[in-house]
Amino acid sequence: QSALTQPASVSGSPGQSITISCTGTSSDVGGYTYVTWYQQHPGKAPRFMIYDVNKRPLGVSNRFSGSKSGNTATLTISGLQAEDEADYYCTSYTSSSTWVFGGGTKLTV
Amino acid sequence: QIHLVESGGGVVQPGRSLRLSCVASGFTFSSYTLHWVRQAPGKGLEWVALISYDGSNKYYGDSVKGRFTISRDNSRNTLYLRMSSLRFEDTAVYYCARGGGGNQVADYWGQGALLTVSS
Predict the structure, then answer these.
(1) Does the beta-carbon distance from A96 to B50 stay under 8 Å?
(2) How confident is the model at residue A36 (pLDDT cuts 50, 70, 90)?
(3) pLDDT per position as a tens digit, B68-114
């Protein structure tokens, strides 16, 4: 199972919006509505941010949103804040009943 | 409050075996799928394995299939990962996670246990 493709890095200024893409295949991202996004600060465990493409768990700011078109999912962060600076990972369920992660994207604010 | 605490990491020689444990609390352990995910130093997340709530279904990532075995003891609220034929490239922080999100995706994570494979 090949890793999903994410940009290595993105950047934005406070208050701006950014997007992070996550590209897979019809056997993972394109075939299911089970794309999840995690935020990870250095030395910390990943934090659950978006699931089922566009749902937010309780406690996650509505500045974070997700979408999907075809084989590509997208995380959007609006109103960037300094604390949003972190690594972001997508993951998708696959046709093999496994999960596959993207390579991760470093967000610089 | 949900907690997952990994243990059993350390330094091991290539070719040897090791078992990681993850003790969970704060939720009904026996009702949830559980995952192991690893992260090599300075690298991204890699999904390793999952086990269904009752242990009847297990799935593995390609890089560990045939070498790693996931198991659970619902009476002890404990998840295990038995790792055999260890390789240098298995060096990573290993996280256990509860599968409580959509389609049992990992939602709550432990803080991780570091495994170093070194001669």
Answers:
(1) no
(2) very high
(3) 999 999 999 999 999 999 999 999 999 999 998 888 889 999 999 99
Instruction: Provide, as residue numbers in chain A, all residues whose Cβ is less than 8 Å from the Cβ of B102.
Output: 33-34, 36, 51-52, 55
For residues A5 and A90, the answer to whether their CB atoms sit within 8 Å is no
Q: 3-state class of B31 per DSSP?
A: helix
Is the torsion defined by CA of A24, A55, A43, B89 positive or negative? Answer: negative
**Taking CB atoms and an 8 Å limit, are B60 and A98 in contact across chains?**
yes
A77 three-state secondary structure: strand
Tokens 């990943």 belong to which residue? A46
Torsion-angle region of B53 (φ positive above 0: left; ψ -120 to 50: alpha; else: beta): alpha
Token representation of residue B89: 């490239």
The pLDDT value recorded for residue B68 is 98
The one-letter amino acid code at B21 reads S
| CB neighbourhood size of A13 (10 A) | 9
Q: Which of A88-102, B14-28, B71-85, B97-111 is predicted least confidently?
A: B97-111
Option in B46, B107, B112 nearest A48 (CB): B107
Provide the 3-class DSSP secondary structure of residue A29.
Answer: helix
Please choose, from the candidates A63, A70, A64, A69, the residue with its C-alpha nearest in 3D space to the C-alpha of residue A50. A64
CB-CB neighbours of A91 under 10 Å: 29
